[in-house]
Amino acid sequence: MIDDARRAFRDLHESGTFVLPNPWDVGSALLLEQLGFRALATTSSGFAATLGRGDQKVTRDELVAHVAALTAAVKVPVNVDAERGYASDPEGVARTVELLAEAGASGVSIEDYDPDAAAILPVEAAAERIAAAAAVCDRHGVVLTGRAENHLYGAGDMDTGGRASHGRGRGPTLASRKEHEVKLDVAPGNVEEGGGLSKEQINKVVRSHLNAVKFCYEKELQRKPTLSGKLEIYWVILPDGTVDKSKVASSSVEDAAVEGCVVRQVKQWSFPKSDGRTVVQSYPFIFKGGV
User: Fold this and answer.
1) Residues 6 or more apart from 175 whose CB is under 8 A from it?
2) Contact, 161 vs 112, CB < 8 A?
3) Both 28 and 143 in a single domain?
4) 199: domain range?
């Protein structure tokens, strides 16, 4: 039965355009099947809402169980919104796709947005993850969709995706990326008020989000190939680890788009809980550009 559904799903893609409605549970899936839809697609936000959560807050095990329930209830093919593959590396993405295939999925989509970094993945990393997923899909006859989330998150056009371009005459290419690395450093005495967080704890969080900071810089580097400078961001960490406010402390970058993007990124970060005191932090990001 699963092989028949997968064959039907591949045939749909070869025959032309079709509509994929989004059931959020078994009941809605059965209703949509009865209405005559020839295939269904899960919805990450819709399913999360049935659990009382926001989008991107569902575990892999919960998604796999959800898919198994849907495919057991309906005869039509089911495509799965697997978000970013529920893994940080290609091997983990492959494992996720394997589990979804075993649960009866006829199709799987993997996106290139990293919610932890709040940024689009570098093209090489995204391609590696899709390649890992494709190997599993090919073995099971599952249709794979590689989702480029550029427009959804305002991350540049579809050619660059907020990344360096592939030699399209719009700035530095990926081959020259080493010349445009974002370098990080911590100025002595940058913690203005203590609060039980060590410099090492703060550095660890900042470095985990470095790709998001690079994204802010690199998307503007396409327009201004010589863009460089030092941007110091000031922010306040509340006792629960959330960032209460962030702003530019000083900048020699002199680019409002980069400055505003980094400020917004920092505002979304989460730090370890402190000992009940507020931590006031300033941090310099060094952007080194050049053609």
Assistant:
1) 167
2) yes
3) yes
4) 174-287
